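Design review, sub-item: ligand-bound model
Attendees: FS, YL, KQ
YL presented the inputs for the glycine complex:
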Amino acid sequence: MFKKDVYIERRNRLKDKLKGGLVLLLGNNEAAFNYPDNTYHFRQDSSFLYFFGLDVPNLAGIIDLDSGKEYLFGNDFSIGDIIWMGPQPKIKELAAEIGVENTEQLDQLGNYLKNAKNQNRNIHVLPFYRGDSVIQFSNLLEIHQSEANDYVSVELIKTIVDLRSVKDQYEIEEITKACAIGYKMHTTAMKMAKPGIYEQEIAGTVEGIALAHGGMLSFPIILSQNGETLHNHYHGNMLQEGKLMLTDTGSETSMHYASDHTRTVPVSGKFTQKQKDIYNIVLAANNHAISLIKPNVAYRDIHLESARILTEGLTKLGLMKGNTEDAVREGAHAMFMPHGLGHMMGLDVHDMENLGEDYVGYNSEFKRSTQFGLSGLRLGRKIQEGFVLTTEPGIYFIPDLIKKWKAEKINADFINFDKVLEEYSDFGGIRLEDDVLVTETGSQNIGKRIPITVEEVEDTMKS
Ligand code: GLY
Ligand code: MN
Ligand code: MN
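KQ shared the predicted structure:
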């Protein structure tokens, strides 16, 4: 945990920005895996962690915006619990660690909330993303589950997005640690890759590195020689000579700050010329995107600039044709990169996505596009100093998508479908992803950059 002043300051900032009523932040509960006592690895809610810091199940925090008082609700552990879990702090002791004065047992939370409701006070809650939280909240307020969403507060969402978007020095230190773990994970994967090894041997080793550093993966690992499938979680293939292995993975620190990097390497240890040609286009798009990152630039514009680099490169190779600006405007490049350039990262790998992607990545000035590809861009608005972002361009050859576009003549003026299908159907996919901090004047890669040039990758694989 951070020092308690960090949490006190964050709650004070919330109180400064939001007025009227009370904020309820429900911590997460344990979730059963295959029977009640066999649970998934516990993951605390990220906004609860941000303001209340306690990585413990079955807690709730209240911030009373009118009186300024703060409460931690939770049950003291019984001797029965302690026999199985070892000595546990009391709720009062947990609250003291984060500078909260008032504590109550959890069974008092319902009365507290119903009182507030009877007095017509605003109860601000965040969107629910777990079924048990909806049930818990509905039971507390004695409402039907279908009414729980009526309490979701857009004001609270926007206030928290404002606060959590800008990372403080302590958060940047944590994310830097997560990136250092990511460095080890990726260089290990590079060194292990070779024909004949199974994807799952590498995936398991990489996941073990995250665990060995006291955290866990920040999302299920994507590691595949079929990298054209964007979120490929199947790891049962034996790596084949001539294929590319795409690894998209990151770690959480023990405090749950994330990293998220992607590297794509040749299974044989050496890129073919054809692989190099595509790889270097993606690398150029990534480097160009990073070079454009600075405060007050719209991330959508950076996305489109990286699309321009992809389009130019693909046109030079004869896979695309026509005028680059027109192709990008029409979204023709999205057949090769049907996703956005990147997203915010912090306590969540897609930071705050549970609060609503459009509140995080868009605003009244920047609305989400409905165009295929661009519609998947999670962050379109202007970026600011202290934001942590990913840049993750890619080029993928997705046979079903190419055939569909060809059959329907989608962007036929800009794509040489026959060449793509004949020569690249079994190419796979390449994505390169870095984690970047927006600084006062530009940006900075967080931590040491994972080997990324053709030479760096080949040298790492050799070593
Ligand atoms: N976890 C997939 C990505 O955003 O990179
Ligand atoms: Mn990723
Ligand atoms: Mn990412």
